[in-house]
What we know:
- 77% of the residues lie in helices and 0% in strands.
- The chain is mainly α.
Amino acid sequence: xxxxxxxxxxxxxxxxxxxxxxxxxxxxxxxxxxxxxxxxxxxxxxxxxxxxxxxxxxxxxxxxxxxxxxxxxxxxxxxxxxxxxxxxxxxxxxxxxxxxxxxxxxxxxxxxxxxxxxxxxxxxxxxxxxxxxxxxxxxxxxxxxxxxxxxxxxxxxxxxxxxxxxxxxxxxxxxxxxxxxxxxxxxxxxxxxxxxxxxxxxxxxxxxxxxxxxxxxxxxxxxxxxxxxxxxxxxxxxxxxxxxxxxxxxxxxxxxxxxxxxxxxxxxxxxxxxxxxxxxxxxxxxxxxxxxxxxxxxxxx
Length: 301
């Protein structure tokens, strides 16, 4: 092959690669525009806040390169200013750095509690919706009894039994939220199971396990994922509340609820010790809640 033919072949290969890259980029832009239109301005702002919280949780050193546990007693109780955006605490630790580094713990425990609640909700919900009538009746009664108790009160009851600490508080919040997920999943799964397209698939000879994988599972899990996004915000608030009561993470942990607990005695003299983590909890929970509501609104019927 001559040099000219090799150059023409290289140009064709490069042209095909550029064409594939342009096609992928075009599909990505269309996907982003469609989701931006579905979420709306409020949903996009919430998604932006969630992305910032995720960045702080995964790479806190990018936003706050300092050490959240480094003490400097000579700089204690400094109000917010150029040297310390959110001020300093009783040990001279930078509150901004602690809030950023605490995002990983607060978001992590909220996500872990939601995962526990969703996992148990899947077992109870699918068992009640797809099992025999006696199992549906038994699980439905259990779900109704647990659902009748306020989730935070149930979490406090479980923590009193399991003991204080991060692990027990995460488990308690997860168990307390499971009945709500199970109730939603049972209703959704029963609706999908008795839908015309599932009935048609069964009449065409599709086996029950295959119909479950093809139709029931995807049409049931998407709404639950949207509700789970909303639930992470609620779990962050509840786990932070347990830490504030001294039943979860304890100082000097930078977890937001523990920071609230540490600053509550100085709220009149050093207000920034509670305002900064309180704003972080409010912003994260509100953004996740709004994003979850928007995802629920655009979820397939």
